[in-house]
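Hey,

Quick one before I head out. I ran the complex with flavin mononucleotide overnight. Inputs first:
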Amino acid sequence: MPRDPRYDVLFEPVKIGPVTAKNRFYQVPHCTGMGNRLPQNLAAMRRVKAEGGWGVVCTEYCSMHPSADDSPFAYASLWDDDDVRQQALMTDAVHEYGALAGVELWHGGHHAVNRVSRLPILSPSGLPLHYVHPQHSKAMDRSDIRNLRRWQVDATKRALNAGFDIVYVYAGHGYLPMQFVSRQFNQRGDEYGGPIENRVRLLREMIEETKEAAAGKAAVAVRFSVEELIGSEGITHDGEGRAVVELLAELPDLWDVNISYVENDSWSARFSDEGFQEQFVKFVKQVTTKPVVGVGRFTSPDAMAKQVKSGVLDLIGAARPSIADPFIPKKIEEGREDEIRECIGCNICRASNNEGAPIRCTQNPTMGEEWRRGWHPERMQPQRNDDAVLIVGAGPAGLECALALGRRGHRVLLADRARALGGRLNRESVLPGLATYGRVRDWRTGRIATMPNVETYPESDLSAEDVLGFDVPHVAIATGAIWRRDGVGHATHHPVPGYERPDILTPDDLMDGIMPAGGRGSAVTIYDDDQYYMGGVLAEKLAKVGFAVTMVTPGMEISAWCRMTDEQFRVHQRLDSLGVRFVLNRRLVAIGPDHLRLACTYTGKEEELSAPSLLLVTGRTPDMSLYDRLSSDQDALKAAGIRSLARIGDCLVPGAVVHAVYSGHKFAREFGETIDNDAPYRRERIFLA
Ligand SMILES: Cc1cc2nc3c(=O)[nH]c(=O)nc-3n(C[C@H](O)[C@H](O)[C@H](O)COP(=O)(O)O)c2cc1C
Ligand code: SF4
């Protein structure tokens, strides 16, 4: 299909200093949990982005020197020529498709704890570290500053040898050059401290020297956070953030602007909308003639075109949208924008980073699997046989499995008891802040609707007999999971005495429309031992309709795992603003008729808490009823010609939506293939000399 002319503007080339991006799609630096440990995996992933049409594809944060060591988190590095060889894998891959390769040279200052290198942690003024750690940073003296400038220059030269087209000076997200800009962290009395003109001195020198080292062979970009969202203590877009851009306006070849720290920059969809950074960065183009790239979870081509046409941005920066769909530019270019797999803003990609694991994505199950499993987001290997597959359950696993099998060419029959396909996605996407989860459903149902080989059977509550009568050789059960009613969770491994209390509710009840007793003003206690989003989301829902909510958790904080998705502090803020009361570090030991017995998770000391109305958000159990009935009668399966029966998604192992989608995709990829489950994927190894 021809491209919609409304989006022509997105395909205009943009000159960035001595190089030219072929279009306005710019994959900003984002980490992958792979860094210098998994260079081939990394290069294959970035190659897919370039193939998907991004005009610029950047690295993640790329350490310039061993004093910038973020271990155990994976980061790229350009410390020596071996690192150059690693990085060249990425630049070669990116250049294959005519994209520019950008490298984000990084020094973390007091964010880089140097756990492996064991070098002194550097910072402008030698304070306790930003993250709690039993070490302080060293106040950089003049020779440290000279060294830092030299490291940036040396790394720039290596970057050129590695083939990069854009080299960054990275003064964002609270890292070292930004620490010099910041009044909070720069308390120096010399020419690098004091007024803002002095505090930008280091950044200015680094830009000038990087330009000199780049010698017109690569563009020099500055990534700078113009806002920290901490008020006048910090950098503000209408205060010192603006002043910095004004002072350095024409110096770099490109301004890459955003807000800090990363948890603000990668703001989740639960708490922000597409384009949320415009209010902070729109001034930048007014004070510089250099091209400007900005971010804001852009997935809509209209929103992207508007950013350019209204003069806010020259280049559309994307981290998460390019993770969820590496082919966004190609799809827009080919008039297939309805095929864009939109990021849902769940921040599972951030969680993998925060947990030190290679990158994972809810929407894109192939992310991070490009090299080791050979998965491609746009291509499935053709079917090995023409067997049909019946999938029972059209939640995230069933939908993804049906789509992926259908793309391989199989005939697929997808049944669900509900009228609307989507399973848990339908139920959860109507909860506060989770509307975008509906995109996991919508993208898949939209694609499936175009595939004649995938038949859907809504409102089909299949019994075992029904399945046996379908005349298909393979059945995958994707009937999901059920929230437990017995209190078993992370902290409690056996049913809690008193769990038979008849009025106890679970998230399933609330999602079925059952509300706690009473109404406005009535008290309800939520015991949250799931500790991800569900407890907090239901607390929000109940508080908003007037319940007096108390949230009890064995965790040290509310919705503790949301720390991994960079959302925990916002969950706390929102629930606090709604008047939710928090009881932390308390494990449920018994449920009484109108109260709970709780034990302190540290001391075991017990106490009673009044709980006339109780919602348990704890573990889940796979809904295996249909699977069990089928698998218990092997003769019947044989007689019906069913050669394989499998479970996928939450019905196999309950998890987050990301796990269910992955499970469905994996089943489809491996269907009919010979898989060595003892060595299921390629590994990158350290070879002994
Ligand atoms: C998984 C992940 C890793 C990131 N790592 C980096 C990084 O290494 N360097 C950096 O400057 N920004 C990093 N960011 C921030 C992004 O570059 C981007 O500015 C932010 O996510 C907002 O853009 P988006 O809404 O398009 O995701 C990361 C973001 C994500 C989601
Ligand atoms: S994990 Fe979630 S937030 Fe991250 S790219 Fe995928 S869909 Fe978007």
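The longest strand covers residues 219-227.

Talk tomorrow,
K.
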